[in-house]
């Protein structure tokens, strides 16, 4: 979006530019060809005023309201109507206000020019002649604004691309939470010592998670089903923290196979829930997760307990809520709604994304 102050300056510059062009050219022609000075100056003033009107209306109103929003038919129609109206008014102003028949003989235009006979087809020639420089002004001002608009859009695209790359770099650098990885390996090792029948299953979960993060997440979009599988494995390995089980309840609906999503978008919320809910205290800590898909729209709900005292845990891993917000803005503009509510005893996240 162009700042109003900048755009107003551009409109003013266009008006001054085209006024100066069509004021100076007739005077230059008079000096080169010779002729009546007052006639050329008067004609230059009328042409400059008409050009200022064309440029001002075109740049200040028609282009931003019709050309840029791609209402091309309306823009062409209104431009033609404006061109005809300004041409007629400027010519009538010239012929009536400056009243050429009453000019001194030396200031009159050469014979054959000026007004044609009433009712004659040739009487419209002066209007056409006056419309030509106004048409040049209309097209020239539009081309300049289109070039400026294209430049601004390309700059915005470059800035957005840089922001995406920066967000992706932060995201890629912290895809795996080292603390979670070490804990998962230690828990699986403990299962192996106890010769638990769940050892191989949990080892396979960890292997699938690493494969997903290291290889499949390199794409800009991944199947939503893969993302849900990763979340299931993440919860399952976190549940190994306590052999008696944790107060964690999760629910997933059926997911359409064709839906794609930006990878690891929900993971920071889940990591934060396990990190800050004091889930190890079975009588106080709890987590509730619900993810469903309906007609291409994702509903993600996550809530967890808030401990009475502040926890002192590692700050490694996770891209943080700030970066999640930024990724949502970059990849799903106008297609998501994120609400984060925090109270003394509960932290709740509600996220909806339209993937259709």
Derived from helix and strand composition plus strand pairing, the structural class reads: alpha+beta
Can you give the helix content as a percent range? Answer: 55-70%
Largest sheet: 5 strands, mixed
Q: How confident is the prediction overall: mean pLDDT?
A: 79
The total count of strands amounts to: 7
| Rg from Cα | 36 Å
Shape: rod-shaped
Strands of the largest sheet, in order across it? 2-4-5-7-6
Task: Please tally the helical runs, counting DSSP H or I stretches of 4 or more residues.
Answer: 9
Write the H/E string, N to C: HHHHHHEHEEHEEHEE
Low-confidence stretches: 101-122, 312-318
Labels describing this entry:
about 350 residues; 5-stranded mixed sheet; alpha+beta; about 10% strand; two-stranded antiparallel ribbon
Describe the secondary structure blueprint for this structure:
Blueprint: H1 4-33, H2 37-67, H3 72-97, H4 125-173, H5 178-193, H6 199-214, E1 222-223, H7 224-238, E2 248-252, E3 260-261, H8 267-276, E4 287-294, E5 297-305, H9 320-331, E6 336-342, E7 346-354
Parallel strand pairs: 2-4
Antiparallel strand pairs: 1-3, 4-5, 5-7, 6-7
Describe the structure.
The protein is of the alpha+beta class and 356 residues long. Helix content is 58%, strand content 12%. The chain contains nine helices and seven strands, in the order ααααααβαββαββαββ. It has helices at residues 4-33, 37-67, 72-97, 125-173, 178-193, 199-214, 224-238, 267-276, 320-331, and strands spanning 222-223, 248-252, 260-261, 287-294, 297-305, 336-342, 346-354. It has a five-stranded mixed β-sheet, covered by helices on one side. A hairpin with a 3-residue loop joins strand 6 and strand 7. Helix 3 (72-97) packs antiparallel against helix 4 and helix 6 crosses helix 7 (224-238). The radius of gyration is 36 Å and the shape is rod-shaped. Mean pLDDT is 79; it is low at 101-122 and 312-318.
